[in-house]
Amino acid sequence: MKPGIHPAYGPVVFHDKAAGFAFLTRSTATSDKTVEWEDGNTYPVIDVEISSRSHPFYTGTARVLDTAGRVERFQRRYGSTS
Q: Which DSSP letter does residue 12 get?
């Protein structure tokens, strides 16, 4: 890699505000806020709205939309264009 053109890549804590869940990973994202992690070190923290702990797909609360019924209802209401 060319030196001096890539962003710094280091440990960052991502905090899911919806679930109260935080995890430590590596990223190029930075933040002015910091948090002391379980290992005693201080890392930058980035607040996120949703993660695998709170996303409906991963938690099993996802709903399946009836797209076929919506299309049929639209065609009944407005007719076909042909």
A: E
* pLDDT per residue as tens digits for the range 61-80: 766 666 677 778 888 888 86
Distance CA(55)–CA(18), nearest Å, equals 9
Under 8 Å between Cβ of 17 and 48: yes
Amino acid at 20: G
Q: What is the DSSP string of 4-61?
A: TSSPP-EEEEEEETTTTEEEEEEES---S-EEE-TTS-EEEEEEES--TTT-HHHHT-
Query: Residues with Cβ < 8 Å from 36, sequence gap 6 or more?
Result: 42
Question: What is the rounded distance in angstroms from the CA atom of residue 44 to the CA atom of residue 19?
Answer: 19
The pLDDT score that the predictor gives to residue 20 is 87
Phi then psi for residue 25, to 5 deg, are: -150, -175
